[in-house]
Every structure is written in structure tokens, then in C-alpha cells.
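Encode chain A's predicted structure.
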Amino acid sequence: MTHQTNLESSSSLVKRDPIVGARRISNYWWGSVVLLGGLGFLLTGISSYLEKDILPFIHGQQLSFVPQGLVMCFYGTSALLLSTYIWLTIIWRVGEGYNEFNKTSNLVKIFRWGFPGKNRRIQISFPWEDVQAVRVEIKEGINPKRAIYLRVKGKRDIPLTRIGEPISLENLEKDATTLSRFLNVAIEGL
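Encoded structure for chain A:
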């Protein structure tokens, strides 16, 4: 579920909430920043090794290769690996999917894209009657958590909200209330 106008994508019989996943603006930002920073560190380390400035604005020849240049190469390589991971999750659309609640077929479907491999497509389907409640979890503090879960018979609670950016309390309450009314079940945790 997202806090945007995705609730308008529902009709009276089918409610489908798209999930953004890794293709968030913040991931594009951090992937770019870490890539550029990593390149800067790596080129500075290489410049100190070659004792020649590779780029005019990077003055790596002023550093001794051991230990400063070597450390710069290590940090640059680490940042490039992290940036590659971030960009691959964006390209592979990890976490993207939808939550679909269909009164016509009496099914609830939760779909997400995972990492490449035999289990890339993550899809959970269960009968409408197995839904017991909509559960809201709110944890404040240094690492706040605000999430909506679906309580289902015989299964552990299924998360419905996106990961990463906590949604506002107002939007969390609105989404949970709308979903509980559509499913005709109680809300737990509010």
C-alpha cells in the first residue's frame, strides 16, 4: 500500500494497491551519490599510485600511495560495489509489486519481485475468508517503523506496506481504515 492516491485504483469489487519497491527517488539519489563518491576516491587513489593527476580537479599525486592512496582505493572500490548493488536492485525492480483484494474471485493476492533466480516471483494467494484482521504496527524512536500487516489464518502476518520510508501516521491510519472496511475485518493496533 502506498500513501499516494493508489486507493483510487479500487472499484467496488477489486482493490489493487501498487507497491513501488526499489524504484524510489531516494534509491536513485543514493545510487548516484555513492557512485560519484566511489569514483572520486578510486581515481584519487590511482592518481597517488601513478603520481600523476588523472583528472584536473583531483590532486592525488600529493598523497603517498601507502597508506593514503591505498585506503582511498579501498574506499572507492567499496563504494562502487555498494552503488552496483543499489543500481541492480533498481534495475531488477526488487520489492515492486501489488496487493490485490478481489471480491469476485474471493481471493487475496500479494505479489512482489525478488532478486533474480528461481524464486524471483513472490506470489501469495489465499481465500478471502482466511483474512482475520488488518494489523497496524507503530514503533517510534531512533529507527521508527510504521507498517500495515494482514493477519491470515494459519500463516504469519503478511506485510502490505513498502519498506524503507516510513509513512505518516495520518496516511497509515487512512490506508488501514480503508482496507479494513473493504475487507470487512477489524483493525488491530490502532
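Confidence is low (pLDDT under 50) at residues 1-10.
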